[in-house]
Amino acid sequence: LFAGEVDFLKGVVAMSGLPPDDRIEVCFAGRSNVGKSSLINAITGRKALARASNTPGRTQEINYFTLGDERYLVDLPGYGYANAPVKVVEKWQALLKQYLSGRASLRRAFVLVDSRHGIKPVDEEIMTLLDKSAVTFQVVLTKADKIKPSQYEGLLKQVRGKLAKHPAAYPELVLTSSDKGDGIATLRSIIAGIA
Ligand code: GDP
Question: What is the pTM of this model?
């Protein structure tokens, strides 16, 4: 699906460190522990690819992965850490704002939301930032295996209700489980189809 190499490229701490913007780029954002590393590993088919970049000290970096020769997958640091120092949060928010508003090759953000929790206020903050930056975003529900089918309807209702307030939201949701493999092929083909 992604012709060429799928691999970790680099971690970036400042706009000056970004690779040239000559590839189609999608980014992944989500609260810490939402299952972002597991999902990236499932999409790339490379066990522990994202985990390797998730070691302490790298967690505030924007991590670049090559998805073949034409695309980048960008792993944004998880947000919503309970005990993150204010200085660290501020620095990260500044970089995030610069990245989202200044990256011409960024086509879509995938905002990961835990199926058990739905959209939280901290998710809405990033969605508002995406609205302001005019970056289309699509919600990916993670850990779908952790909820009962009878809970899907309530979850989708909560998510759709929140998304209605965000002009940059893409209406189609993707329900995934990295553990069971649900939705992974769908997400891959969505990314491969972004021009
Ligand atoms: P990150 O902090 O967003 O990168 O989250 P991780 O990928 O490290 O996952 C956080 C925790 O959730 C880990 O214990 C994972 O094993 C678990 N997890 C991730 N994805 C799934 C999933 O699809 N199903 C289940 N049941 N657990 C998951």
Answer: 0.95
| Distance separating alpha carbons of residues 193 and 129, to the nearest angstrom | 25
Specify whether the CB–CB gap between 140 and 176 falls below 8 A: yes
Write down how long the chain is.
195
41 Cβ below 6 A of ligand 1? no
Burial (CB < 10 A; 0-12, 13-18, 19+), residue 150, is exposed
**What is the complex's ipTM, to 2 decimals?**
0.99
Helices and strands per DSSP (H, E), number in the chain: 6, 7
pLDDT in tens, 11-28: 998 999 999 999 999 999
DSSP H or E stretch at residue 93: helix 86-102
Atom of ligand 1 nearest to the CA of 30: 3
- Class of 14-35+78-186 per CATH? alpha beta
